[in-house]
Amino acid sequence: MKKPRWLAVLLAVGLVTVGVTAVSALTYRVKWGDTLSRIAAQFNVTVNDIVQSNNIADPNLIYVDQLLEIPTADSTPPPQEPPPPPPSSGGTYTVQSGDTLSAIAGRFGTTVAILAQINNIANPDLIYVGQVLQLAEGSPPPPSEPPPPNPGFAIGGQSNNFAHQAEMTQAGMTWVKIQHKWNPADDPAVVAGHIQEAHQNGYKILLTITGDTPYPAANSIDFNAYVNFVAAVAALNPDAIEIWNEMNIDFEWPAGQINPAAYVSNLLAPAYNAIKQANPDVMVISGALAPTGFDNDYNAWADDRYLAGMNAAGAANYADCIGVHHNAGATSPTASSGHPGGSHYSWYFLPTLNLYYNSFGGARQLCFTEIGYLSPEGFDSLPANFGWAAETSVAEHAQWLGEAADLAANSGKVRLFIVYNVDFDKYTDTDPQAGYAIVRPDGSCPACGTLP
After folding, report:
1. d(CA 253, CA 299)
2. Which of 13, 108, 129, 231 could form a disulfide with 320 if both were Cys (CB 3.0 to 4.6 A apart)?
C-alpha cells in the first residue's frame, strides 16, 4: 500500500475459459465455459483448423462474444433452443456476475448507447451485480442459466511474518504475499527464505517486486537488471510474481515518464518472457495501479486511462492476471454511492472490479494484490488524509472484507484475493497500516469469521 498521495481524488490463472453457442450451421459465438481445444474436440477439428480459419494470433486469447468459423461442413453443431419471442414492452434485467453492458446489449438486441441513455448511466464500464436495468422495448427476456462457478479462486494475506497462521487458516487463506523492495545490487537469494518458509508452512507465495526508491529520478530504473532479477527469482519456485507496483504515480515511477506503453514494453513483456523461460509454472501478475482519478500527465495518470493504455500496448499478452488494489472503501462492497470521499469509482469495490476486468475485454482474470478496509477503532487517532474511514467500525471492516471476498469469488472475474493485511503493527500519523490488519490490537480477528 502507498501513502495516500493520490487517494483523496481518487488468470495461478491459466487460460481464459470460454464456451460456444451455435448461431448458424458453421458459426459460433464464444461464451464463458470452455477452451479453444474443447471447442475443436467438440466439432472433430483441430485447434489449428480453427486458428487458421479465424486468423487467431494466440489460441489462448479468445474472448466472450467472439464469432468463430468452424472449418468443416461435417460438424454437427450442438442443439440450440430457439429464442423466446420478445415481450411487448421493455421490462427489466438484473445485472449478474460477469455481465458487461455491451454483452447485455448484444443479448437483448439493443445498443450500449440506448441502455446507457434509458438508465442514466454516465460511464458504461461501471455497472454492478444486482443493478436493475430498464430494457429497450422489444428486447428478449434474459437467459435463466446461472453464471459458472470460479473453482480457481483463492484467498491470501499480506504478512510480515507467519506469527498468525491460526488466524490465516481460519480465514481460509492459502496464499501469502511478501513485497520485496528491489535494488539492482540485490542477489535473488534475498527472497529465497520467504519462498521456503511459505512452502514449508503450506502456503503459496506471491512476491510483489518493486523499486526500493520513493520518487525515483528520471531514467533511474535499470530494466535489464530487474528482468534478470525476476527471472532468477522465478527459478526459486515462487508461485506468483507481481511486476512492479503502482507505476501510474511518481512515488513508484519517474515523474514525466509515467506511460503504460513504456511499462509494457520495457518491463512487463521482457519480465514475463524471462520468467516463463526460467519457470513456466510461475503466475505473472501485472503491477497493480494506484486507484486514483488524479491525472496531470506528469506526476500521475488516472488508473482508468492507464489501464486503457496497457490494453492498447498488449499487456494481456504478457500477464496471467491483472493486478488490482482496492484499499479506500468506506461502504459495503455492494454499494456504488454513499462514500464520504465522493462518487469516483475507486472508492467502491464493484465499480473498480468491473472497470479493471472490462478494460481488457475479459481476456484475463483479476488478482487483487491488495484489498483492505481501514478501521481506526482501537487506535488513538486517524491521519487526516484517511478521514474518509473515520466512521468505519471493526465490525464493518470484517463484514465488508467477507462480502468483498464472496463477490469476487462468485463473479468469475477474480483469481486471487490478497487481504491487506494480516498483522501489520505500524500505525503513524501518516500511514495507519495496522488499522487495515485483520488481527486487531487486542489480538482478536473478527474478519477471520467472515472471510470464506
Report:
1. 9
2. 13
Give the separation between CA 114 and CA 344, rounded to whole angstroms. 23
Peptide bond into 259 cis (omega under 30): no
- Helix ranges (H only) for 201-316 are 223-234, 260-263, 269-278, 303-312
> Do the Cβ atoms of 175 and 152 come closer than 8 Å?
no
Residues 6+ apart with CB under 8 A from 142: 93, 107, 108
Query: Beta partners for 179?
Result: 208
263 is written with which cell numbers? Answer: 511499462
Tens of pLDDT, residue by residue over 308-356, are 999 999 999 999 999 999 999 999 999 999 999 999 999 999 999 999 9
What count of other Cβ atoms lies within 10 Å of the Cβ of residue 2?
19
- Between CA 296 and CA 305 the distance in angstroms is 11
For strands 19-22 and 240-243, give the pairing.
unpaired
Q: How far is CA 427 from CA 288, 376, 398, 432, 436, in A?
A: 23, 10, 19, 4, 10
Local structure of 64: helix, strand or coil: coil
Measured CA to CA, the distance from residue 293 to residue 356 in angstroms comes to: 14
Give me 100's grid cell. Answer: 458487461
Beta bridge partners of 206: 177, 240
Digit-coded pLDDT (tens) for 390-437: 999 999 999 999 999 999 999 999 999 999 999 999 999 999 999 999
pTM of the predicted model as reported, rounded to 2 decimal places: 0.70
